[in-house]
Amino acid sequence: MGGFGKKKQENKGSSKKLLKLPEKELRARSINNHLKGKLVEAEKGYLAYIKNGFYDADIFSNYALICEEKGELDKAIKLYEKCTLNSPNHIFSKFNLSFLYYKLNNLVKAEILIENAIELNPNLPNGYCIKGLILKKLNKYNDSKKSLNKAIEIDPNYFDAYINLGLLSKDYNKYNDAEKYYLKAIKINSNSAIAHLNLGACYKEKLEIDKAILYTEIAIKLDSKLENSYLNLATIYNEKGDYNKSIELAKKELTINQKSDLVFQLISEILKTNQPLNISEKDNREYLKNILNRKDISHRELFGSIDNLISNQILEKLSILKSEPYDNKEFNILIRDKELIKALSLLIFCSPLWEKVLRNLRKNLLIKFSEGIQVNNNILNFTIALGSQCFINEYVYYISEEEKYILDKIKNSINKNTNQDYKLALISCYQSLYSINSEFINLDSYISNNKEFNKLLDLQFNEVSNEKNISSEILKVGNIDDLISKEVKSQYELNPYPRWIYNSYAKEKKVNFLSIINSEIYPNSIDENLIKLTDKKLNILIAGCGTGIQVLEASRYNNCEITAIDLSNASISYAKRKVDEYGMTNIKFIEMDLLELKQLDKKFDLIECSGVLHHMKDPARGLSNLVDSLEPRGFLKLGLYSKYARQEILRAREIIKEKKINPSLDKIRSFRNDVLNGDLKQLNEITDWSDFYSTSMCRDLCFHSQEKCYSLIEIKKIIEISNLEFLGFTLSKDVKNNFQSKYKNINSLKDLKVWDKFEKIYPNSFREMYQFWTRKSIK
């Protein structure tokens, strides 16, 4: 459907000469140029033909193909539509327009057109092939397969039909069928790079890694410029743990497709491992620059890579800087580092040294401004970025009495027209701009000439205002009567958890739930023959959605409706704002207690509930509610705290209880300050937890009103009592590889007793949580 040939080097001819040619000669010459891949000359001929007032359906349809290739899609559609209007029986213009609508996701028009084309000529296999693709996108698996098989019935050697049947089968986890179709396609055309590439991807899913590499490499030999070929190979090596090979291949993919979303997502994944990589500083910065400018990637885990951009030696000097900062060499290195400044506004900097640096610079900048020092644009932009950082970490940094005094003076002088942007930027490093609106300044109509400042205003004022408006629109179901539920709700109303800017998001690349579960529990897998995938929409429940990270990650599920519940109105309002930003429309938010689930009167095919049950008075009752809300043989993902991994957290909680430290903002700041200053040496290890570096996360980590930790033996009993089947853990491949190196029996991966032995030797294996998939058993 993409045209007759590839563009070649050509000499420009005279358009005036073309206009003088007879109609038949002009038609023949234009089509001949198109067939030879001389697209510029072909386009000139088509334009001359149309300008002369001639009409020919082939000319209009062919010219539309060229417009498509150039990305002039509106023009292409108009040409195709004129062709189908003037020549209703011109079947190929209908094929092409239908396929274009398919690519643009206008499936209603695409389906109408292809049905009409098939009626005109039911003996052309490409019509049924296009129809099969449309039906696949409409999640009509059986109808799609039937249409593609019809194409093969007409032409047993119709290559495209086998390729599309392979893709259809792979999407529905029928890898053996997919393999069969791809092998048939290769038999028809042994030089097809795309067939070998798809077969390699199929073998990757079948865990036949050597074959996956072999066929992907054959695809590259056949066509070294085939999109996704190097990416597929890079993904395989990433899963093997060969990060250097993976990033080398990803770089090659970028020479073919510079804007590939999937390449940057893969590179981001590699950088987040914090493994040493054989890449230049220039490449590293270029990767970070591109990743930090993307909204479909979670930046939170990139701190390790950002931390490496500047030496500890420079940071140590900045952490004790007391003199004039503006002329300081180290300070100027920092504020001119574009990637660092960008990162400050996107992710929490989570190390004691960085906190010391940023706290010191914040104080220094405040004092120097109060002394009348003038600021330049670099200083302003750094202060804006620091204000964003402090807002994201919810003003967790300790504030001295001297700073409070100077800050009050600046707030009271805010309406003096000099340096308003900078004054507001400084204030934003200590409290949100939303909190000073009306009292000190009216920000509703405030506009700056500085683009970065306006972004800060959006973050700290406009978005907060939006959440306040959203909060009154959230649907509420049932009552919150349980005393612990009320306490937990109160905590998250004050400190919605966590605050975030961007997250992983699958706008186009949707996957069926079975593929997602299998990828998470790998090398365990659910037998495709035990699951009957249907066209029915999947009903998903996110139980305890918080501020929406889980909801956004659920964007990868294909053909689903998502219900997201949480106790906290403030958390849901944050989540709803973020989901709206990403344009997700299949989400229903409800403010409710998990204990009230029965009031929904609904069964779910799949439930995700991470980090919730261990904060309940009676986790078993909460789990019972979840299981009761599952369809028979439904899937449930759980996340629970490990008592082995959280030993230092449990010590912190004991000390907090002993010292009677309440979870107010000032008390949390003072507690953290004592830890960072070494006054609580027995708690030094908690500074290794990233959750230590924001108010809501630190409160959740150390001050939560209700928390229960488990061992895997306890979880084994809970799963058995709840009539659930354990499917496997969601863990890093490094942990799983370590486990498999100790326990060779593949069945050990599902044996929680064996995992319990392993965890006692390696207690940090489940540092975040036990995250695992289960399935409702048949009683």
TrEMBL record:
Domain of life, source organism: Bacteria
GO biological process: methylation; protein O-linked glycosylation
Gene Ontology molecular function: methyltransferase activity; protein O-acetylglucosaminyltransferase activity
Residue stretches of each TPR repeat: 57-90, 125-158, 159-192, 227-260
SMART domains (alphabetical): TPR
PROSITE patterns according to UniProt: TPR (PS50005)
Keywords: Methyltransferase, TPR repeat, Transferase
InterPro entries referenced in this protein's UniProt entry, alphabetically: Methyltransf_25, OGT, SAM-dependent_MTases_sf, TPR-like_helical_dom_sf, TPR_rpt
Domain Methyltransferase, first and last residues per copy: 540-634
Pfam families per UniProt: Methyltransf_25, TPR_11, TPR_8
Protein name: SAM-dependent methyltransferase
